[in-house]
Amino acid sequence: MRILALSDIAWGRRENGLSSHQLIDNTYLRSMIDGISPDVVVFAGDNIYDSGSTGNVDDIKEFITVLSYLESKERYAIIIEGNHDNTYDNYYKILKKIQNSQYIFELSLKQKVIQGVHFWGVPYGAERQEAELTKQNIDIVIAHPEYSNRTWLLDINTQFVVCGHFDNCLTDIQGQALVSLNCSPFSYAVIDWQNGYQKITYCYRRMGKSCNIQLLRKEGHFCQIVYDNSKVARQLLEGAEDLPYSRMIEELRKAKKEIKTLDQTGQIELLNHLIKLGIPKTHIERYIGKKRLLYRYKQ
Q: Is 80 exceeded by the pLDDT of residue 89?
């Protein structure tokens, strides 16, 4: 199976890095889909924006046209709700369009098995709830989290997390793949899946910077990384902070378990350790809690 992952569609925009600064509309997206030839297209939230227009095109009309095109080609699509999709109650127009479709599925707080691959949708704001309630094995989680809530998604028993909303990131965290996208198609990922993910191709084109990264998997972990721009690739693979993103997640997960065994003095020392590593307080508070103790610490 080949999966194309998109999020926060940049309808009506033009951007450096795309040939001839094309307008992002349904024609552009349909051509892109045809070139990649995916079996499933994942839209990880903010597929339309608030009042239905962000620029020179009607977001709702453009998105419905793309969904109709996918259905006509018998390609599957999965959508979830982001924080901008339904501010003005326009999301119902999408739901109405796809309600009887055999190929297009809205999976906010739902699951679907497509060609043997188990997908689970986590809409904006439901990360902790789903992590605490979901006990089954999930192949691919699709979500639209705030940056500080993203750690919860990796508590789900899953091989792969696709995120929208914020940040561009591609990393492996103890055998779990995390792909984060923003402003597609200026960033997108192609996932080749056969009994798990075998290859991830991540493409980034924005603000005059470009990078293609290809990750190959063997025995549950990335075994080969190929990229064409080392500086941008490092930011995508490790994050923009001094502490690599994968290590930040590992430290948070370890601390969450450890803090339950400590007295108050030990808890304060552990929280201070996380802060000194450079982990934002918001991440610590959202995942571990201990707000009262956390904000005693003065940097």
A: no
User: How far, in Å, CA of 103 to CA of 122, rounded?
Assistant: 19
**Looking at the DSSP assignment, which residues form a beta bridge with residue 199?**
192, 216
The CA-based angle 220-226-228, given to 5 degrees, is 150
| Digit-coded pLDDT (tens) for 106-128 | 999 999 999 999 999 998 889 99
d(CA 139, CA 21) in angstroms, rounded, equals: 36
- Lookup result for tokens 């977001």: 59
Q: Cα–Cα distance between 6 and 182 in angstroms, integer? A: 8
Q: pTM value?
A: 0.90
pLDDT tens digits for range 9-55: 888 877 655 555 678 889 999 999 999 999 999 999 888 875 545 55
The closest alpha carbon to 8, from 81, 73, 75, 72, belongs to: 81
The CB density around residue 61, as the number of other CB atoms within 10 Å, is: 16
Tell me the C-alpha to C-alpha distance, in Å, between residue 178 and each of 5, 16, 44, 233: 12, 26, 13, 15
Burial 253-290 (b: 16+ CB within 10 A, else e): bebeeebeeeeeeebbebbbebeeeebebebbebbbeb
Dist. CA 283–CA 167, nearest whole Å: 15
Find the angle CA(105)-CA(109)-CA(115) to the nearest 5 degrees: 45
